[in-house]
């Protein structure tokens, strides 16, 4: 049963009062009281929102783009344009705005950027509740995401467990299977497409399958029924948006409930999995040599284990499924870079399986982990250039301290227990740091160029400061594996829905095909690609 659909059809159906209305009207004593109560409640609600709480006197001035009750809708509807306008009209480059009653500080400039990414009191997970593409962490934040006094980088339970799962021996153990997942995806990609045309954003399930192997269990990846249960829930979390609740956190929307029910579906699934593992004999449990069993063997508590895997299934797939589809799209549009990546793959594959009289795709499993991580500089440049664009959005933090923190380079402060936002499009689409910033130009990352190094955090594609990308090692490897299998089997071309080649794709791409003002930055537009079989290249 589809839990989300059932919920929408039953609990979210609009209530009908037509049958009860005559009784309400007939009861002349009850109706005025009810009406008065309703009006009083509405007036109280309007007063509550029209008179938001005061702010610290040294907070930056409020942006002019502010409406009663809602606050700054531009934060959702035209994020980069709104951000630039608010920065421009501010004397310091910083500004205040509201999301409903929440007070948020917008930051800009090199000094504030460096402080934003390095200040240990600014928390990423707590700031995620104002993300416009849907809440995943609901207050209170679970203890697995809270610092516990350990070393600076891996100072939470979640980070430590993630890093453990990306150790070399763990990656080598799953490498062959993850390559097989990618190959299966691209070998069967045209099964339901007689025209040979694929909408690339739909290719996210192989990413989830690989992530299940590395961060949860191959039991899920290899069992169609289990994988469907997990993928249905993750699908909802990836593609259902709750922008309404950015402004009104207390008034759940249908999207909000769909997301919460999907998350509950994961919680229930992993709870059942945990109980099944506990019921196993020691001999049976010893054969379950996977991350799930590893946490049980560590003695981690059931709430920690459940929260870890529920979050990991979603978090590891969120960015990866976006980047993978857009990487293929850019190869389809920029044929010269597709050819360079293809030739690079040939060179590496032939080095490790050159004596084998087999197709290129059959040589890929023979590439060792070290070569995957060091022998694909062209793919690496293309990946960084793509991420430069797709990581250009508002990044959030939350001041976990009750005290105001001075904003460097100004006499203003970030008040205690207040959100802050910095738009990474400021450096990553700067003509100074990236000449012709809307152009797809991987050579920006060649040694000797790298203009972005003129400023701290000029490139933020892999995080930085107090919050570097914990999963970077696997994230790169995963993208190389997916791209390698696609290019070994197919020649990619941008096209229309009928498979006709699109000669104007480059001109229409407008900055790597990313609308930086999009209200749903992770809701991908259609990216149609024609897959044509390659000649069997040795």
UniProtKB/TrEMBL annotation:
Pfam families: p450. Keywords: Heme, Iron, Metal-binding, Monooxygenase, Oxidoreductase. SUPFAM superfamilies: Cytochrome P450. One of its GO terms (biological process) is sterol metabolic process. Signal peptide: none annotated. It comes from the Eukaryota. Coiled coil: none annotated. InterPro entries: Cyt_P450, Cyt_P450_E_grp-IV, Cyt_P450_sf. Heme binds at residue 469. One of its GO terms (molecular function) is monooxygenase activity. Belongs to the cytochrome P450 family. This is Cytochrome P450. It comes from Cercospora beticola.
């Amino acid at each position: 049963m589809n839990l989300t659909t059932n919920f929408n059809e039953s609990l979210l159906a609009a209530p009908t009062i037509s049958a009860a209305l005559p009784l309400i009207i007939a009861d002349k004593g009850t109706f005025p009281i009810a009406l008065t109560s309703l009006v009083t409640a509405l007036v109280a609600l309007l007063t509550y929102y029209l008179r938001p709480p005061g702010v610290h006197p040294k907070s930056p001035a409020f942006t002019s783009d502010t409406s009663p009750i809602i606050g700054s809708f531009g934060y959702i509807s035209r994020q980069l344009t709104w951000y630039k306008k608010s920065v421009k009209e501010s004397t310091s480059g910083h500004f205040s705005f509201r999301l409903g009653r929440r007070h948020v500080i917008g930051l800009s400039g090199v000094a504030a950027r460096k402080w934003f990414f390095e200040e240990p009191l600014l928390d990423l997970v707590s700031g995620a509740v104002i993300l416009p593409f849907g809440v995943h962490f609901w207050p209170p934040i679970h203890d697995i995401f809270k610092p516990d006094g350990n070393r600076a980088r891996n100072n939470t339970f979640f980070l430590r467990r993630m890093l453990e799962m990306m150790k070399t021996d763990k990656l080598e153990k799953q490498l062959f299977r993850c390559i097989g997942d990618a190959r299966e995806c691209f070998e069967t990609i045209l099964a339901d497409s007689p025209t040979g045309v694929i909408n690339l954003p739909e290719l996210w399930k192989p990413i989830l399958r690989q992530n299940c192997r590395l961060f949860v269990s191959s039991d899920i990846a290899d069992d169609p029924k289990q994988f469907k249960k997990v993928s249905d829930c993750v699908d909802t979390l990836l593609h259902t948006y709750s922008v309404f609740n950015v402004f009104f956190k207390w008034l759940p929307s249908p999207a909000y409930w769909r997301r919460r029910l999907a998350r509950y579906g994961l919680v229930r699934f992993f709870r059942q999995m945990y109980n099944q593992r506990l019921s196993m004999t020691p001999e049976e449990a010893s054969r379950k040599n996977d991350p799930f069993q590893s946490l049980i063997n560590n003695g981690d508590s059931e709430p920690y284990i459940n929260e870890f895997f529920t979050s990991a299934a979603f978090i590891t797939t969120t960015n990866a499924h976006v980047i993978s589809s857009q990487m293929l799209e850019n190869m389809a549009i920029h044929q010269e870079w597709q050819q360079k990546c293809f030739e690079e793959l040939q060179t590496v594959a032939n080095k490790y399986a050159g004596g084998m009289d087999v197709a290129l795709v059959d040589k890929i499993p023979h590439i060792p982990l070290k070569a995957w991580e060091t022998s694909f500089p062209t793919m690496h440049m293309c990946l960084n250039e793509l991420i430069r664009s797709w990581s250009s959005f508002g990044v959030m933090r939350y001041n976990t301290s009750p005290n105001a923190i001075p904003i460097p380079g100004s006499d203003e402060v970030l008040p205690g227990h207040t959100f802050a936002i910095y738009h990474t499009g400021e450096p990553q689409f700067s003509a100074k740091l990236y000449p012709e910033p809307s152009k797809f130009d991987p050579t920006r990352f060649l040694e000797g160029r790298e203009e972005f190094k003129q400023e701290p955090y000029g490139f933020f594609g892999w995080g930085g400061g107090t919050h570097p990308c914990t999963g970077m090692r696997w994230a790169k490897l995963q993208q190389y594996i997916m791209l390698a299998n696609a290019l070994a089997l197919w020649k990619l071309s941008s096209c229309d829905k009928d498979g006709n080649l699109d000669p104007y794709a480059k001109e229409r791409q407008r900055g790597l095909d990313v609308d930086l003002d999009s209200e749903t930055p992770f809701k991908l537009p259609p990216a149609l690609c024609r897959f044509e079989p390659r000649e069997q290249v040795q």
